[in-house]
Amino acid sequence: xxxxxxxxxxxxxxxxxxxxxxxxxxxxxxxxxxxxxxxxxxxxxxxxxxxxxxxxxxxxxxxxxxxxxxxxxxxxxxxxxxxxxxxxxxxxxxxxxxxxxxxxxxxxxxxxxxxxxxxxxxxxxxxxxxxxxxxxxxxxxxxxxxxxxxxxxxxxxxxxxxxxxxxxxxxxxxxxxxxxxxxxxxxxxxxxxxxxxxxxxxxxxxxxxxxxxxxxxxxxxxxxxxxxxxxxxxxxxxxxxxxxxxxxxxxxxxxxxxxxxxxxxxxxxxxxxxxxxxxxxxxxxxxxxxxxxxxxxxxxxxxxxxxxxxxxxxxx
Length: 316
Ligand code: ADP
Ligand code: MG
Fold this sequence. Notes:
single chain
């Protein structure tokens, strides 16, 4: 058990995020590996205005095989910076973003396996009244066994709001098809981007938890990720485009058709279209998708079948 931050030694940097840095760390006594996410105070706002210590409590309560486990939360403690540090389960296979950057596309079998686990994770989070709001490849992590889990929830929610403000103000450049890390808004549903048009409510409601309907936004993001895994680039705009915020917003909210690979199987196509339904009221729910044929392919007797673990890029 990690009792204090001094029990841990830093081995390497695993990732730089918007909110802070993630280190690979080792527990000095047990030699167990963990990931340590250190967040500066000025980037923390709190889930829907909930104070940070409550947010940390929510994180610690999450306990599912489909969600990256947070073992402990510490105040950084220094007087200049009262941010927090999260001690998390170490996911040695990196993120789906890393896998896509390396392999570009995945087979339908593997995508089905990923989709099923992400849906199980969302089913768990939603039952705990947590809306993830930032499902995207870099927040889906893979462990040494090749199992994908949802990471960066709650905390990342905060970061989305920050990015949103930036992009609404200045309009940034988004490097989507090369999996640049600026794609946060790219996975957002129409009703999250433009609540006035798509939710029928005022934009001021945006940061409030609107109850059950918020969950539909996470389903949209699953659809974008699943399609991206088969296409090899961000699906809602052409592979050659480097869109600004306005182009991206138009594509998400008003884009007429989804670029669907011709070779995709009927269950794949149907799954994606059920996720990418612009009207959140008509969109499939997580529970419905867990019953969908695409994630219930059965027949695991095919020995040549690839698994996500076969795609894992060894971390340096
Ligand atoms: P941010 O809020 O900054 O996006 P994330 O929690 O998504 O932070 O972490 C950023 C990156 O760090 C991830 O994309 C992943 O590459 C790496 N990372 C995060 N958590 C872990 C973990 N538990 N195990 C291994 N790598 C991790
Ligand atoms: Mg992240």
